[in-house]
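Intended use. Records like the one below are meant for learning the mapping from a protein sequence to its folded structure. Do not use them to infer anything beyond what is encoded.
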Amino acid sequence: MSQKLFHIPALLTAGELMAIDALIERSEFIDGKLTASMAAKEVKNNLQLASGNENLTTIQDIISKALQQSPLFNIAALPKNIYPFLISKYTPGKYYGWHVDSPVMGTPPIRTDMAMTVFLSDPDTYEGGELVIQADTTSSAFKPAKGDAVLYPCQYLHCVNEIKSGERVAAVTWIQSNVKDAEQRQVLFQLNQVHSALYQQAPNAPATNLLLQTHSNLFRMWADL
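Structure written out for the chain above:
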């Protein structure tokens, strides 16, 4: 698996998932093609919670707060702007073929550096529906636990496999990062991980402080503000 793909376990708590389930249960879904770009319309075959729905706004708020509290998300994405979450549903026969996300979205527009899928269905309740990402020279398939998320660079081809049975619900968003280059974000993430390990062993050691200084200086050099 590419190191640029991040599996974020338990992004949402059991209580948050219960609240989202109740909101989804009483929400209207529409044809997902209505919000797809020209290229995506040819391969997008799913349902989407209608915009302007109060339930959608509440769900977006719940997940956005969870993102703010997720260290892994914030370290990996270094978020500058986050597109409002879309809630998609896949029933038997639904799928989303191979595609690349639009490079710019929204009003005002944001650059889509990373995409994220938050899984809102128990994987044991549906067959198929894997998120497949073609990263570099390998493909990775994701069907994680309910409440988990997958974060990945938008330049990768990806798809959602056809649902054979059951129902798959997910929240999807796109992120403009403070560091737009994926390789640079990866370097900063790795430095952060090493610093965290060193800090646990020797918080005031010269090497620990030097690594923190290096991370900060590179972030400053690469920040796109």
